[in-house]
């Protein structure tokens, strides 16, 4: 038998340790990767979708816990503060409604595509990835979890349990932008996310990320620091600094969707769009920041 | 853990099911293969097309990506269950609005729509567009689908019009439409339909699809390679369940096929050397389980890759190796049309514009991958090989298979399944000879279903073109001359390359007057996939460069771009560049129809651009003409009809309907000519055993060529009836309980067919008529009469370009087409909308790169959200050669779209796109280029 669908985490951990199966949740990557009829590539599968603990979004004083098997449709429909808007916007851009109804948050991270739409918004939310196994539990910052194209920090006996957004990242407002050659069901040529907190028109906190322009989506930490203390209306003035950091930290490639020069250019444009939208979201919020989940 | 033999329980369409299939099987396969719910279609097995959309606990999902195990204890709704949950009216809305063309995406569309309608009973277009964004349709351009969904709960719009006496000119819902909307249509991969199972001449049948052997092809992973097989017998012996391994040596007849006999060059199974990635070298046939478990990587073949020629430039280089040793310079064939002295005239022209334009391989991307089944039937003691598969050309399939399999033609019978889109890609044989060969060898029914990747890598494409053209005019914008030269990458095998090389020079001038003309098109072999027929045979590519240069010239002359085209449009009685005198020319009427929207669109763009910097709007226009039917070659269609002793009027309709509507249009023409209501007509076929040859569904020929045969057939049968009734031409006919009744001048006469002796084919009265459009061969300068009928069109595109990202959004397309007579206006408009969708794809996103974009997420076709508003304008200037004046339309509608969009982009932001598709990075680079040129 090559398919297991345990009801509890302990059983899943045992299977992981003993049989090193391929993990299956929404199936949108696992099944899409084998073109033929019938089951995918004969691999042993561990289906985690029957484990109740892996579903749903729970707010807590520490932040938000997004269960590993939570679908993107659930994220898009969840009641979340404006700081998580980027995540909800990305949720609506992942594949199609059919895909969003199946594909999971953890699946998007574990598939580790450089063009994963879920990664940039979670990066600006300082997301932590909670993993579990028979031996130990870990909390890994997302930026360290995805280690390269199609590779993660996950060990063969480990699985993702949840993604955590800390309460500290629940402040302000955020936005997500992507560009592709068609409107729906399109792999991003480039994308960006930004979250911003303002006080009396001054930026007090900014988080920016860019995806599909490097092996792993990147935060623009230097530019983020530079934005602190700047008036939200003066962001465009700092564009040269943005361009400089993009040039330093991105390594876009030529592929069938676009060339590297275009990616580098459009990444900057998408960042500015996200910042503008996040700024307008943040400044329109009541000033009582830090309300938490 | 789930133990091995667990039953999985689920609700499907309100019924309780228990399945013992492995829980990791795709739900789509379980629904289709085990529960017999074949209305759920599989287009890609990757979640890219949405054809397999079903509702799982009310939410739309791709059944191809969902393991059966996850449906345990849950509720699945498929297209077969829609009526049961009170959504039958949605299906009727699809039928009434003409939302289904080929019908392969329809079940997926219906399910996505059902989920929406349960939330929002009266959705707006934007809501419908979003909700359907996960289902691809390649035929319709989505417009009628969106309309059908928005009006699903509006009963007035769903009632079919009352049956009318008149058949021609009425938007009757397609006659074969209901099966497409209720999920019962049988495509190539589906179970045999009941009406076929009732045909004793097709038996004995495979009891079910499970009893047939599955066939898989071993295909080259290299663009060019030599190969050798290992020990095939030992390999087979080690794989229980595999019943045959077949290679070129097993082919009893000629291991060569091609749509044009003189150029046939494609092996069914390659011998020692493959010329393109995806070329088949061997077949494996076995029981379903064995074939499903089989890993092609494990097959004993060793490849020795060779350098590959991937474009025309390298293929034409002096030292280039030859793809086919007998074709020097890798030149398959060149076509040319010369008139006057173009070079001299250009030298004397006031303005000359020139350009070089390059286009990409374009994939047909029909949502149904090739599929079919073959079996041996016993027809009166004679063994006949029956092949039922999706196709556009049943008689050509029969002839090819007979030659390959060394069978007499009468021992091969082709029964086309419903065809889930074709657009030219299903004109060449694909799996027909493969399953035929496997069936002959094993004696068992054999079936094959291409994977999406296999379909994309192994079947034909639109020719990538590398074109250079110069056009000159005088100060007032009157065209003087044009020189056109194009290399068309025809890939590894001939396919329809000669047709493209022949058609392009005839059409490259566009529907415009010019005294001096020199056009040459070469079909060049490379190691790309064979380029073949794709809606327009090279003309859409040529129109791009011609219309671009017209905008250049209009600018230099300082005149309006529409005026420039009107100034040069052909008129009634003008001669074409092949010297053909045309009685009725529709281009002027089409351009005139765009004058008012053109003016207002230009004004709207101006005012938008005055207020906006980042987004710029522009308007573009392009014209088209297109000759219907084969180029300067015989092109007959035959239609037969008869009346049975019971008074049934049977129409043997062999013009394959691939969604474009031949089943309906041919029947409308026939009914009108016969003078009996359309509802009395019983359609038979296509089936090479039952329908005379109505030719292939290509070159926009079925309405005007087969339609002419149907007209003649209807008239002839009517004459026979009137003779029996002893009545004149003006008699009104009707049918009542099998009796034909005639009324004329207050008199009534009756004809009871039961009293007449049955003759040929069992009919008491029968007519069979052939029409072959009058053409003449072209001489060495391309002079002659290549087509009997031309269709005309002009389109105007309004676009918005984001100058930061290079993203283009097409906002509105006005499409004026002179189709002579709209036999069925709704179907005609559906063709226009679908053609525009493909034109948008050609212009903005479609680029097939062998080895890189062999799926529907790397190869992009337009989704619901990429479609503009479309305003079809039908112009009816009858053509004396067409049935009721009708001209062809199917390909015309795609030709002006891409040039109109590209011209609109240029108008919006100055970007002159010379390499297609206009992906965002190319548009942005062209905007920058324009900025630099402007400095």
In short:
The complex is a heterodimer of chains A (293) and B (935). Chain A is of the alpha+beta class and 293 residues long.
3D structure, described in words:
The complex is a heterodimer of chains A (293) and B (935). Chain A has 293 residues and is of the alpha+beta class. Chain A contains ten helices and 14 strands. Chain A has helices at 9-19, 72-77, 85-91, 97-100, 105-111, 119-124, 142-145, 221-227, 239-249, 260-283, and strands at residues 3-4, 22-24, 45-47, 57-60, 63-67, 128-132, 137-141, 146-148, 151-152, 159-166, 173-179, 190-199, 202-211, 218-219. Chain A has a five-stranded antiparallel sheet with strand order 4-5-10-6-7. In chain A, strands 11-12-13-14 form a four-stranded antiparallel sheet. Chain B is α+β, with helices and mostly antiparallel strands and 935 residues long. Chain B has a seven-stranded mixed sheet. Chain B has a five-stranded mixed sheet with strand order 2-1-5-3-4, sandwiched between helices. In chain B, strands 12-22-21-20-13 form a five-stranded mixed sheet. The mean pLDDT of chain B is 96. Chain B is globular. The longest helix of chain B is centred in the last third of the chain and has 24 residues, at 702-725. In chain B, α2 (88-96) crosses α5 (143-150), α21 packs parallel to α22 (702-725) and α23 crosses α24 (897-909). Chains A and B meet through β1, α4 and α10 of A and β4 and α25 of B.
């Amino acid at each position: 038998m090559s398919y297991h669908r345990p009801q509890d985490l302990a059983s899943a951990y045992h299977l992981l340790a003993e049989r090193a199966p391929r993990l299956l949740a929404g199936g949108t990557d696992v099944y899409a990767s084998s073109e033929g009829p019938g089951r995918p590539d004969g691999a042993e599968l561990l289906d985690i979708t029957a484990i109740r603990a892996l579903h749903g979004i729970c707010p807590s004083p520490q932040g938000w816990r997004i269960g590993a098997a939570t679908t993107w449709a659930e994220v898009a429909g969840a009641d979340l503060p404006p700081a998580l808007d980027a995540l909800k916007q990305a949720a609506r851009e992942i594949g199609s409604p059919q895909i969003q109804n199946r594909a999971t948050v953890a699946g998007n991270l574990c598939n580790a595509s450089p063009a994963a739409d879920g990664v940039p918004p979670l990066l600006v939310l300082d997301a932590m990835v909670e993993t579990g196994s028979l031996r130990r539990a870990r909390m890994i910052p997302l930026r360290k979890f995805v280690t390269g194209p199609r590779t993660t920090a996950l060990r063969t006996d480990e699985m993702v349990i949840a993604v955590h957004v800390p309460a500290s990242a629940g402040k302000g407002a955020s936005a997500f932008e992507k560009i592709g050659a068609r409107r729906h069901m399109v792999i991003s040529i480039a994308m960006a996310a930004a979250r911003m907190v303002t006080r009396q028109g001054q930026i007090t906190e900014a988080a920016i990320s860019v995806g599909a322009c490097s092996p792993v989506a990147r935060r623009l930490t230097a530019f983020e620091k530079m934005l602190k203390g700047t008036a939200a209306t003066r962001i465009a003035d700092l564009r040269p600094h943005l361009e400089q950091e993009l040039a330093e930290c991105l390594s876009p490639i030529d592929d069938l969707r676009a060339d590297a020069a275009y990616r580098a250019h459009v990444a900057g444009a998408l960042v500015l769009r996200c910042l503008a939208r996040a700024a307008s979201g943040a400044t329109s919020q009541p000033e009582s920041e830090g309300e938490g989940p | 853990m789930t133990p091995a033999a667990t039953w999985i329980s689920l609700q499907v369409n309100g019924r309780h099911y228990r399945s013992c299939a492995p829980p990791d099987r795709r739900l789509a396969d379980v629904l289709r293969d085990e529960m017999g719910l074949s209305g759920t279609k599989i287009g890609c097995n990757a979640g890219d097309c949405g054809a397999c959309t079903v509702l799982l606990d009310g939410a739309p999902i791709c059944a191809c990506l969902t393991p059966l195990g996850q449906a345990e204890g849950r509720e699945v709704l498929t297209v077969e269950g829609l009526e049961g949950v009170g959504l039958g009216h949605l299906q009727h809305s699809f039928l009434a609005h003409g939302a289904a063309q080929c019908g392969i995406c329809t079940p997926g569309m219906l399910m996505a729509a059902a989920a929406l309608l349960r939330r929002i009973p009266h959705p707006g277009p934007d809501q419908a567009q979003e909700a359907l964004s996960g289902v691809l349709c390649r035929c319709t351009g989505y417009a009628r689908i969106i309309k059908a969904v928005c009006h699903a709960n509006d009963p007035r719009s769903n009632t079919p019009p009352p049956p009318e006496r008149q058949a021609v000119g009425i938007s009757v819902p397609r006659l074969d439409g209901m099966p497409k909307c209720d999920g019962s249509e049988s495509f190539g991969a589906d179970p045999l339909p009941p009406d076929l199972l009732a045909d004793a001449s097709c038996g004995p049948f495979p009891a079910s699809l499970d009893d047939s052997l599955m066939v898989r092809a071993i295909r080259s992973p290299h663009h060019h390679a030599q190969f050798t097989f290992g020990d095939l017998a030992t390999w087979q012996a080690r794989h229980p369940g595999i019943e045959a391994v077949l290679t070129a040596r097993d082919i009893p007849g000629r291991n060569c096929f091609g749509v044009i006999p003189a150029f046939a060059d494609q092996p069914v199974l390659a011998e020692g050397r493959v010329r393109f990635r995806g070329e088949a070298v061997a077949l494996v046939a076995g029981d379903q389980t064995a074939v499903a478990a089989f890993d092609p990587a494990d097959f004993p073949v060793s490849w020795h890759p060779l350098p590959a020629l991937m474009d025309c430039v390298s293929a034409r280089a002096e030292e280039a190796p030859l793809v086919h040793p007998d074709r020097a310079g890798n030149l398959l064939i060149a076509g040319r049309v010369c008139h006057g002295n173009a070079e001299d005239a250009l030298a004397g022209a006031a303005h000359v514009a020139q350009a070089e334009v390059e286009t990409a391989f374009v994939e047909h991307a029909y949502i149904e991958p090739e599929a079919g089944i073959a079996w041996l039937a016993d027809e009166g003691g004679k063994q006949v090989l029956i092949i039922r598969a999706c196709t556009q050309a049943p008689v050509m399939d029969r002839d090819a298979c007979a030659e390959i399999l060394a069978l007499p033609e009468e021992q091969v019978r082709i029964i086309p399944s419903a065809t889930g889109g074709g657009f030219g890609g299903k004109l060449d044989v694909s799996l027909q000879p493969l399953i035929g060969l496997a069936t002959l060898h094993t004696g068992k029914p054999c079936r094959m279903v291409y994977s999406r990747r296999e379909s994309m890598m192994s079947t034909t494409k639109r020719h990538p073109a590398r074109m250079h053209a110069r056009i000159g005019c005088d100060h007032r914008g009157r065209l003087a001359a044009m020189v056109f030269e194009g290399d068309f990458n025809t890939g590894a095998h001939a396919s329809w390359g000669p047709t493209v090389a022949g058609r392009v020079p005839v059409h490259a001038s566009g529907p415009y007057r010019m005294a001096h003309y020199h056009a040459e098109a070469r079909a060049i072999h490379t190691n790309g996939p064979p380029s073949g027929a794709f809606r327009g045979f090279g003309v859409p590519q040529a129109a791009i460069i011609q219309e671009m240069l017209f905008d250049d010239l209009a600018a230099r002359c300082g005149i309006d771009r529409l005026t420039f085209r009107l100034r040069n449009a052909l008129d009634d009685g003008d001669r074409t560049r092949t010297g053909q005198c045309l009685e009725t020319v529709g281009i002027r009427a089409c351009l005139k129809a765009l004058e008012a929207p053109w003016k207002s669109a230009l004004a709207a763009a101006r005012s938008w651009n005055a207020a906006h910097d980042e987004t710029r709007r522009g308007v573009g226009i392009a014209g088209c003409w297109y000759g219907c039917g084969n180029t300067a070659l015989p092109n007959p269609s035959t239609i037969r009809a008869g009346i049975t002793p019971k008074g049934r009027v049977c129409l043997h309709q062999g013009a394959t309907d691939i969604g474009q509507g031949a089943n309906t249009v041919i029947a409308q023409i026939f009914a009108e000519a016969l003078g009996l209501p359309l509802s009395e007509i019983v359609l038979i076929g296509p089936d090479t055993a039952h329908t005379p040859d109505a030719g292939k569904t290509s070159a926009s020929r079925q309405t005007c060529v087969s339609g002419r045969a149907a007209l003649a057939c209807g008239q002839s049968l009517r004459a026979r009836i009137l003779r029996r009734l002893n009545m004149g031409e003006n008699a009104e006919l009707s049918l009542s309980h099998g009796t034909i009744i005639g009324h004329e001048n207050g008199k009534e006469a009756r004809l009871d067919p039961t009293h007449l002796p049955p003759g040929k084919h069992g009919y008491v009265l029968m007519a069979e008529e052939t029409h072959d459009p009058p053409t003449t061969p072209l001489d060495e300068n391309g002079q002659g009469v290549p087509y009997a009928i031309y269709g005309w069109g002009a389109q105007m595109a309004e676009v918005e370009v984001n100058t930061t990202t290079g993203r283009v959004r097409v906002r509105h397309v006005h499409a004026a087409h002179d189709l002579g007579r709209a036999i069925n206006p709704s179907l005609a408009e559906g063709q226009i909308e679908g053609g525009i969708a493909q034109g948008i794809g050609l212009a903005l996103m479609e680029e097939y790169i062998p080895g890189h974009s062999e799926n529907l997420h790397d190869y992009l076709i337009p989704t619901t959200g990429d479609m503009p508003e479309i305003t079809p304008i039908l112009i009816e200037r009858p053509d004396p050669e067409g049935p009721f004046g009708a001209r062809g339309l199917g390909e015309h509608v795609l030709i002006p779209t891409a040039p109109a969009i590209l011209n609109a982009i240029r108008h919006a932001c100055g970007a002159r796109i010379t390499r297609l598709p206009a992906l965002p990075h190319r548009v942005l680079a062209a905007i920058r280029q324009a900025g630099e040129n402007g400095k």
